[in-house]
Amino acid sequence: MDDMETMERLRKREQKALEEIIKKYNQYVSIIVYKILCGYSAEIDMQGVVNEIFFRLWENADKLDIQNYTDLKPYLGAIARNTAINEKNKIVQNLPLDEHILGEMNDSFSEIEKKQILQSAMAQLSKKDQVILLKFYFQGKKIKEIAKEENMPLSTVKINLKRSRSKLKKILEEEGFIYED
Fold first, then answer.
1. Closest by Cα among 53, 73, 51, 52 to 7
2. For the chain, does the N or the C end have fewer beta carbons within 10 angstroms?
3. For the residues of 10-34, what is the DSSP string, one character each?
4. In whole angstroms, what is the distance from residue 158 CA to residue 156 CA?
């Protein structure tokens, strides 16, 4: 199957062309989506994301530049990557900072107050910083696991973790909370 011919048929709204593209590229698109969203499989319907990618292709078929692009693979790869990242960001933005993430703490007044201070300080960090800190300290994940789940290089996770700790410490100190060993 020639992509250029199939793209031309797709531009003419031939449903059979879309079916051929799905058959040829479904696995490729699914792999991209899975690699980006593998740590979020409980929150996201991955097949739904894959379907959305092919739906976007269908909806924008008339905009396909068949003069300059004779291969659909890079175009679909870009759509898949961007769509998956957008889905991941929706989950990260809605990350709740509640008890089940921060863990069980003693209900004494002092512990409740510490928890509230920590939640307030965490809320001032970027969502990416929050995710890394929460996964490392409160979910007990290893840096290697976080790197894989967040699709980031190991060194980037280490640097972000160090910077996030420093930011959190500074915020806590500015709010008058000083931790003593």
1. 73
2. C
3. HHTT-HHHHHHHHHHHHHHHHHHHH
4. 5
Give 34-47 pLDDT, tens digit per residue: 888 877 656 678 88
DSSP collapsed to 3 states, 61-117: HHHCCCCCCCCCHHHHHHHHHHHHHHHHHHHHHCCCCCHHHHCCCCCCHHHHHHHHH
The end-to-end CA distance of the chain, in Å, is 67
Integer-rounded Cα Rg, in Å, for the chain is: 22
Residue located via tokens 């931790």: 179
In which residue are the tokens 């980006």 written?
Answer: 36
Q: Which residues contact 31 (CB under 8 A, 6 or more apart)?
A: none
**Look-up: residue for tokens 């531009």?**
11
Which tokens go with 77? Answer: 């790869």
d(CA 87, CA 116): 29
pLDDT in tens, 80-129: 888 888 887 777 655 555 555 455 544 555 566 667 777 777 888 888 88
Structural tokens at position 180: 């003593």
Closest CA to 35 of 46, 20, 45, 25: 46
